[in-house]
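Summarise this fold before class:
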Amino acid sequence: MRIRVINPNTTWSMTRLIGECASAVASAGVTVEAVSPTMGPASIESHYDEALAVPGILAEIARGEAEGVDGYVIACFGDPGLEAARELARGPVVGIAEAGMRAATYLGRSFSVVTTLGRTRGRAWDLASTYGIDKACRGVHACEIPVLELETSPDARERITQACREALALDESDVIVLGCAGMADLCAHISDAIGAPVIDGVAAAVVTVEGLVRLGLRTSGINEYATPPAKAYTGLLSGFQLGEDPAARSPSLGSEIGAAAPHSLPSERSRR
């Protein structure tokens, strides 16, 4: 089994960390491939960042489909491009916010999210509502550490731990969900420090994808997640054009913007 973990930002040191945490929970015989797109933002901390990360995510999904990948994890807590990715992939695609929040509901009646910047709190609330688990979410809290500083700030771990401790007390919640893939290696330390379950969405998503693949389940291609209708795309997006004829897709996307053009995208027939 091959699971591709896509870090939607282009910071490779973070991708390596995410890959290590993902591999640690995968079963024997499961290959975890951590990748970053060749185009996109260095970190994702705004709606603008998130929107511009999506083409790179979809290019990685398309490449995975051509290479026979069985399932995918989108390793950003905003779950960017999740539904579009499900339209392309035959196997399951799971975002770390959905996986982390759902896992939390198995371990307690309520949970709190601790994320990076306060400006991203609304997105976490939106996702909890979209996934139908907002009633279990008692609060979303920010430690005000920019994503890239998670790797460089000497006191990042203790600041995040303290934010988790305060969220647990303030919200009277049962479980903490870490709201950034860059926090993936902190679970054990924080859980020991605060005495409560702490969930890393990367690990939860990898285990979820692995379980779905083992059950022989694939993304439904019947209605909303059916392959999108073929149409023309222009300019920098011309390489993302879908259609029965592979020649209709631009072969020059990679040379134009430094990204591998999507290829061998699934047809409706092959996904059912």
